[in-house]
Predict the structure.
Amino acid sequence: MSVLLALAIATQTVDPYQLDIGAPGKVAVHNNLISSKTGQEVTVDQIAEAADSFSYVLVGEQHATPAHHQMQADLIRALHKRGRRVLVGMEMFTRDNQSNLFMLPAQRETVDEFFETSGWKTQWGHDFAAYRPVLEAVRELKTPIIALNAPRDWVRRIGREGASSLKPEERAWVPEIRTDNENHRKVFAALMGGHPMNGPQGENIYAAQVTWDTAMAKSAIDAKNARYGDKTVVVILAGIGHVMYGQAINYRIKQMSGADSLSVVCIRGGEATAVSRGLGNYIYQSP
């Protein structure tokens, strides 16, 4: 999720957690992990069991929130415990950086060494310590890391010039930029403070967001297809704007592969909050 989106969440006039998209009604969450269907508290083991029939599990985070990353690590371990072949797809890395991500899960470097070899500062830049639980789980379980994101200069170019600026040779990673999902536009507008992105500049900014989602979905699909077997599950770690209401990465996975996915949407702690049931299959509000 971009800095622009993160700032918009803090200043929105439309509550992005209460949109009427997907399952009807609201559900209360208060510093716990719940099923949006039942409203009942659940464990990561229960989510892992529910994921038995899914090849993609998306966890939408508030970046560099330690409790969110600890929950992600716990879910990765729970899926591994159920015998799944877990791949961890990370928004934090661009696909052209994949070759630098093999040493940690091979246990040929430490987590601290990974900070340097992965190019964390330039690839992501958020507080590395917050993500340590995820990376420790990856190393311990020998879980491959999949770089999900498109090169950032591609996204910036599309944000300036529009979807038509995607070059033919870039379509292997971003096959198509489709901007016709009206529900996703509603989510994006809510995250941008409730203001629709109008005019050519607004359309270009929106196309850049869709490029992110499409590229990450394609990377996850390619990783899954390269490792055959029903036991494989791709755990996708990305900002909540790429997961909410099943309209972003999850929507593009369905569009490109036909596969459904399971989602966990993480929000920060505070007062008891009512959120839309459609926000995600599971909601985690960190204490």
About this structure: The chain is about 40% helix and 15% strand.
